[in-house]
């Protein structure tokens, strides 16, 4: 695994009081910008993306809840689908704890 990067999110902690939809749009927009930066800096175009998410994520890459980003019990966000459509490649979106397990348990 390479290119691991941790970034503070444009979420509820930075923008308290914003509606959920706007917080989700800000977080996705920030993520897309960061992924584009990484993609431009890479020696070749990515064939897939992987983004660890802080919160419960379903097996399809749908963010089920994101209390630290846009507050508790808000509408689900199909983040894997959004990123796949945006970049035209498969996108894997695991929970951050799951991703950490993959990263540090790997030989």
What does this entry look like structurally?
This protein has 107 residues and is mainly α. The protein has helices at residues 20-41, 79-87, 96-105; strands spanning 49-50, 91-92. The chain has 3 helices and 2 strands, in the order H-E-H-E-H. It has a two-stranded parallel ribbon with strand order 1-2.
What is the CA–CA distance across the termini?
A: 11 Å
Which value, in Å, is the CA radius of gyration? 14 Å
Q: What is the chains' assembly state? A: single chain
Mean pLDDT value = 87
Number of helices: 3
Largest sheet: 2 strands, parallel
The total count of strands amounts to 2
Structure class: mainly alpha
What is the element layout, followed by pairings?
Elements: H1 20-41, E1 49-50, H2 79-87, E2 91-92, H3 96-105
Parallel strand pairs: 1-2
């Amino acid at each position: 695994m390479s290119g691991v990067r941790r970034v503070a999110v444009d979420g509820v902690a930075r923008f308290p009081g914003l509606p959920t939809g706007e917080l989700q749009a800000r977080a996705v927009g920030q993520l897309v910008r960061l992924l584009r930066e990484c993609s431009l800096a890479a020696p070749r175009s990515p064939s897939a993306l992987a983004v660890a998410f802080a919160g419960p994520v379903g097996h399809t890459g749908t963010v089920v809840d994101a209390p630290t980003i846009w507050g508790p019990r808000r509408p689900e966000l199909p983040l894997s689908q959004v990123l796949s459509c945006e970049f035209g490649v498969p996108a894997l979106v695991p929970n951050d704890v799951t991703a950490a397990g993959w990263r540090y348990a790997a030989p």
